[in-house]
Design a protein that fits this description.
The chain is mainly α. The chain contains 3 helices and 2 strands, in the order H-H-E-E-H. It has helices at residues 2-21, 29-47, 59-82; strands at residues 53-54, 57-58.
């Protein structure tokens, strides 16, 4: 059951990061989940586990990490699609 909650929270974090960067609509739900989960891992690794927590993820560092992931992915995909 914990895995399902992690996926749900990861999707929400990824969707929030996509909405903040205006790049989430083009990514889709699976990419939002991946960005949320990887972003949570990166954000908590860089910023720690402060703030409110849900499903074992500190929300504020996770959202910041997901924003970083979404921006990096959109830059890489944007450069490869132009070639």
């Amino acid at each position: 059951m914990g895995f399902i909650w992690s996926l749900i929270v990861g999707a929400i974090i990824g969707a929030i990061a996509g909405a903040i960067t205006n790049r989430g609509a083009a990514m889709g739900w699976i990419a939002n989940i991946v960005a949320g989960l990887i972003g949570a891992w990166i954000g908590q690794g860089l910023l720690g586990t402060w703030g409110p927590s849900l499903a074992g993820m500190a929300l504020i560092p996770s959202i910041i990490g997901a924003i970083i992931v979404v921006l990096i992915v959109s830059l890489v995909v944007g450069r490869t699609s132009k070639k």
